[in-house]
Amino acid sequence: MNQHTIDVLKPGAPRPCPKSDPAAIVGGRVELQLLTTLKCNLKCTYCSLGVGEVLGSQTQVGYTIDHLAAFVDKHLKEKEVYVTFYGGEPLLNGKMIQEVMQRFPLFRYQLQTNGTLLDNLPDWVLHKLSNILVSIDGGEETTDGYRGRGIWRQVIKNVGHVRDRVGGTVTARVTWGRPDTCFEELDDLAESFDYLYWQFVADEHYFDDSVAKRQAVLVQLIDKFFRRTDKLYPLIPLMGMVRNKLFPSRATELYAGQTQCRVSTHIINVMPDGKIFPCPDMMYVPEMQQGDIMGNWLRRSPLQPHPDMPCEGCEAFSWCRRNCMKNLYLGYVKNDLRYRTNVVEPICELIKFMGQEIDRHNPAEWFAQASLPVRNQVIGAEVYEYCEIMP
Ligand code: SF4
Ligand code: SF4
């Protein structure tokens, strides 16, 4: 990704310490995303932590479990907390994962992992996980192309190895970077994992016919989603968009009307050194710092809707609700025209295209005929609470 015209937080730079805001978290839920390390054992070519040289910059956790407990006590008391272990590769610091799970037994837990070290996890940890997001890019050729030879096989083997011992669900998390990613490889993941979530890559991969190629795959995915009413085709972005179109109040209630990736309301990313940011892709930007574990302060997310963002006049607004605030911030507030044209606008075009394709299948009629388990999943799948919905 290109470097944007924003200041980068230098290691060792003095930490700003604004006053805490008791209403920093909106609503009764909070996602505490703990980055157990910024090290990773893979070198994915598109890794967003490569921007601002965040990846690998912190290998040790600089705060203690008692610091974290004091922070939770001061800022998250009486909230329903779900923790996502994140990185780098979070399993490179499995000790911290176990320590946190033991210290906070009432929290819900999710793990975001590249899947290569999954087989090292003890059974009691696997049992407690509500969801595991396994990063994978598609089929073998696509995944190994980004992640290195043999990784796809290793991940699939590890998932098979732990699957029966995971308490909750296992979700394939795809960054859709390659324009040539085909229907069959995404379909394979949707059929073999509990859910498939994808995000359109936030990088300059939308030239020439690349948007049209992705649209052709989306047509097939959306067509398959609506083909059956007795069994869910578990694609989170499609489930979420259909939910948002049919039940608009669900599109807003968990997020106070703001973005469904939760960065404006109730997700906080704690870096290994204890600094807190709303979006894990913007931890190199000093003005985005939202709090600090050791200083025990927290303010409202600085990543908020801005009048320069185009969403309120957009045909997709009622169900998209500002897909990615990072993209909107860089493209319209920081006015990075290259990023806006080459990344943000093509992604918005794909989102609007998905909305039109969904409408073509008459989602209300499909929903009315769907079995109760399918309807329940579409309306209220638990995974919506700790996974982004929009791609
Ligand atoms: S499609 Fe783009 S412009 Fe429209 S609401 Fe979503 S993020 Fe905003
Ligand atoms: S979707 Fe949300 S969390 Fe993800 S990169 Fe965008 S702003 Fe950040």
From TrEMBL:
It comes from the Bacteria. Pfam families: Radical_SAM. Keywords: Iron, Iron-sulfur, Metal-binding, S-adenosyl-L-methionine. Its cofactor is [4Fe-4S] cluster. Coiled coil: none annotated. GO terms for molecular function: iron-sulfur cluster binding; metal ion binding; oxidoreductase activity. Signal peptide: none annotated. Residues 36-189 form the Radical SAM core domain. PANTHER family: ANAEROBIC SULFATASE-MATURATING ENZYME HOMOLOG ASLB-RELATED (PTHR43273), RADICAL SAM CORE DOMAIN-CONTAINING PROTEIN (PTHR43273:SF2). This is Radical SAM protein. The lineage of its organism: Bacteria, Pseudomonadati, Pseudomonadota, Betaproteobacteria, Nitrosomonadales.
